[in-house]
Specification:
heterodimer; A: about 130 residues; alpha+beta; OB fold (Dihydrolipoamide Acetyltransferase, E2P); 2 domains; 5-stranded mixed barrel; about 25% helix; elongated; B: about 650 residues; Tick-borne Encephalitis virus Glycoprotein, domain 1; 6-stranded antiparallel beta sheet; 4-stranded antiparallel beta sheet; disordered C terminus
Chain lengths: ~130, ~650
């Protein structure tokens, strides 16, 4: 076999190996994001799986007990009750658009472990 | 005012379009007068563009709020440097700055004594025209406001020295890459570039690489000191957008090095020379919202489709250069190489960096791509750590082996002679760390970073000894002379040492960081990892633009006082929001980072977030070393220097 052929075969094997590795790593570190109503349809099917949900914090729904926050998230159609344990960003408040990450555990609440406020942008001034 | 800037930009656009067309025509026909007029057009475009820039800067400095951009991004209360920074904190202004820098680089290319072929200049003119179209036709950067409000001000997070350095450095790097791209694509019309051409390309690539590297490091430092989050790198899409061109330009520098030395890998060099700029154009596509980014980015920007088109066009142009049949007489040696040689090692380096870039790219665009298929998936940070981390560590390790391999072929005996000392010392270092009882990641760090460090030391010692023997120079004097004798090589080695320091800092601060949060009443203290933090109380003070709340925390480590830290949580009127200002005490072994998460004005209690980041200081020191090494490598070479007999002799003794 010529040197060039060997090199090409080596390159192809390398590319396939890296491709497979990447694909599976990518799969195991993806978190799917849903709107509130999409998430409500998946309460049972995604139970125990980490998912993300985007929505607006409902007015007059936020309460706090130590580091545990409870609030309701809405997308205008459905309403989801959320328990969040841990810190929240400075700009977290009622009426804000947020992305939360967590799991359904079968008790009707979405247990969130991370809240990201959808800031308009780091660069843009507030309008 | 705005009209002047607007008119200048439109004139500059017209002039650039003329220059692009004129250069393209003179690339095909010998028309010296047309070429001369196109050159003048480029200079005129630069002057017009500069006038437009100056007008905007003047408007910012004089608080001319009748210009919309000034009103939206600046404020009277800002200090002068931040007023100027307000220009590139806007989406239009950032493109204006970038375009202007490309114009500046073009003029520098024109003014260098070596003649530049027509096509690269035409390409540079076309790139400038692209930016001018974006800032004048797609949006009007110079929009005026009939009823001027007072300025809204710059986002407080941006009021940091990092803002004065990080974006301009990245734009500078991207502009340098535009020149590299133009030279690469310009090679389509003239056969393989001469050695002079390669040398020029190297200088521009090195310049761009250095600016990008510094831009990224400053960005990381800024995030660490300002963002009250305690980290310095989040694999955020916008960060990745700055990292990818740097990774590719690192590979490009290695491809250029081997092409200069051995006349090999010119295809790699051409591919990388084109794609680095494509990666640079991907950056605004991502930053302007082509891919949603949680941490930063511009909201509602009209530019992403244009940049996507630019990415596709530059990518296609690069492919065209690669496919284009060229003079192959001096490339037949390209496939002749031994794996155990520096040529082989450089190939592995190039492949390593390409795979690394591909991983970062895939992780960055995967959310956007999944969105197209209707189901949005976010990629967790861990993906990058898991997928890219091992490649990064491998490359650092490999960096140590590479200089030990000679050009052409390395005999086993030579390899053994070169490897014994670094490997033995590495083993000793690793065993010592195990003996002290440090964690396994530190031991791994020693195993990975040992070979590069000790191999470099060995090379330097040998070089110094050879000079001492052959030229009778004193050992202390011989060292700087040795470095100076082959600046690309030894400058590169210093850069490698800087990368090792950065690696040590990254491993220490990512695997051994610790965090705790505690709510303290005044007078109470908290003990964490050998530190005692005593909370003394809150102080409140009103500034014209914010209310500052400071927690005073006395810090001590095993009985020794380390002074007072003052983390703040400030309310900014212009933003109507709280922004934290954490306090950091830097020590050689670790940083202690204290943030004020919450406070209670009635009871005076405060919730403090305390983070320990081991070895983080060495990331910034390593960055400095990289800059220093790059400067040495960048220093102009005198022609014919490398062929001098005595010089070659000394070099041969250090790299058998």
């Amino acid at each position: 076999m010529s040197r060039k052929k060997k090199l090409i075969i080596g390159a192809v094997i390398l590319a396939v190996a890296v491709g497979f590795l990447l694909f599976f790593t990518l799969r195991s570190y993806s978190v799917y994001y849903y709107t509130v109503s999409e998430a409500l349809e998946r309460v049972d099917s995604t139970q125990g799986e980490t998912i993300g949900i985007g929505g607006t914090v409902l007015k007059d729904s936020l309460s706090r007990n130590g580091s545990e926050w409870t609030f309701a998230l809405t997308d205008g159609k459905g309403v989801l009750r959320v328990i969040h344990e841990g810190s929240v960003p400075d700009s977290f408040a009622e009426g804000k658009d947020v992305m939360i990450k967590g799991k359904f555990l079968g008790d009707g609440f979405f247990h969130s472990s991370k809240i990201l406020t959808k800031c308009p942008s780091k660069y843009s001034p507030k309008d | 005012m705005a009209d002047i800037a607007h008119a200048c930009s439109i004139l500059a656009l017209a002039v650039c379009l003329y220059a692009a067309a004129a250069f393209e025509i003179s690339a095909h026909r010998n028309l010296p007068r047309l070429r001369a007029s196109a050159r003048n057009a480029l200079i005129a475009a630069f002057l017009l563009f500069s006038l437009a820039m100056e007008t905007m800067v003047y408007a910012l400095l004089t608080d001319d709020f009748s210009i919309d951009l000034v009103a939206r991004y600046s404020a009277e209360s800002l200090s002068a440097p931040y007023k100027i920074a307000a220009l590139y904190s806007s989406k239009e202004g950032s493109l204006m700055t970038w375009g202007w820098l490309i114009s500046l680089m073009t003029v520098i290319v024109l003014l260098t004594p070596h003649p530049t072929p027509s096509r690269p200049l035409g390409i540079l003119a076309a790139i400038q025209a692209f930016f001018l179209i974006l800032i004048t036709i797609v949006t009007n950067t110079f929009e005026t406001n009939p009823a001027p409000p007072s300025g809204t001000g710059l986002n407080p997070l941006l009021q940091n020295p990092g803002m004065l350095l990080h974006p301009p450095l990245l734009f500078l790097g991207f502009s340098g890459l535009a020149v590299v791209f133009a030279f690469t694509i310009g090679a389509l019309s003239n056969t393989a570039p001469s050695s002079e051409g390669i040398l020029r390309m190297r200088r521009w690539a090195l310049f761009a690489w250095c600016a990008l590297g510094m831009g990224n490091i400053v960005g990381a430092w800024w995030a660490y000191t300002e963002l009250d989050w305690g980290g310095y790198w989040a694999w955020d899409p916008v960060e990745n957008a700055g990292l990818m061109p740097w990774l590719l330009s690192t590979a490009l520098l290695h491809a250029i090095a081997i092409e200069r030395k051995r006349g090999q890998l010119s295809q790699w060099r051409a591919a990388l020379g084109g794609l680095t700029f494509t990666a640079a154009l991907l950056s605004p596509f991502i930053t302007h919202g082509g891919i949603e980014s949680p941490l930063h980015g511009f909201a509602d920007s009209p530019f992403p489709p244009y940049f996507l088109a630019a990415v596709l066009i530059t990518g296609a142009a690069t492919a065209a250069v690669l496919i284009h049949p060229r003079d192959r007489t001096n490339t037949h040696a390209a496939t002749q190489f031994a794996l155990l040689s520096r040529e082989g090692a450089f190939r592995i380096t190039l492949i390593g960096f390409s795979i690394l870039t591909a991983i970062v790219l895939i992780g960055t665009i995967a959310p956007g791509v999944s969105d197209l298929f209707g189901k949005r998936a976010e990629i967790e940070r861990d993906f990058f750590d898991r997928a890219a981390g091992p490649f990064l560590l491998f490359l650092v390790f490999f960096m140590g082996i590479c200089p030990l391999l000679g050009w052409g072929r390395t005999s086993r005996a030579a390899l053994r002679r070169n490897l014994t000392f670094p490997m033995a010392l590495t083993a000793v270092a690793a065993l010592t760390l195990v003996g002290i009882g440090l964690g396994r990641w530190y031991v791994l760090t020693a195993l990975i970073c040992g070979p590069p460090v000790f191999a470099t030391l060995q090379e330097w010692l040998r070089g110094v000894r050879a000079r001492h023997r052959l030229k009778g120079e004193g050992r202390l004097r011989a060292f700087p002379l040795l470095i100076w004798s082959n600046r690309p090589r030894y400058g590169g080695m210093i850069v490698h040492l800087g990368i090792v320091l950065i690696t040590i800092g990254v491993i220490g601060s990512s695997f051994y960081d610790a965090e705790t949060t505690a709510t303290l009443e005044p007078g109470e203290s908290l003990t964490f990892k050998g530190y005692t933090l005593t909370y003394e109380g809150l102080e409140r003070r009103a500034d014209p633009d914010k209310i500052i709340t400071t927690a005073r925390v006395r810090l001590a480590h095993s009985g020794h006082s380390l002074g007072t830290l003052s983390p703040q949580k400030n309310f900014w009127f212009s933003q109507g929001a709280f922004v934290g200002e954490s306090a950091i005490r830097t020590r050689p072994a670790e940083d202690i980072f204290v943030g004020l998460s919450e406070y209670n004005r009635e009871t005076g209690s405060a919730t403090l977030r305390v983070l320990i980041h081991p070895l983080i200081l060495w990331i910034w020191v390593g960055g400095g070393l990289v800059l220093g090494g790059a400067m040495i490598a960048f220093w102009p070479e005198r022609k014919g220097l490398r062929n001098r007999a005595g010089h070659a002799k000394v070099r041969n003794t250090c790299s058998p």
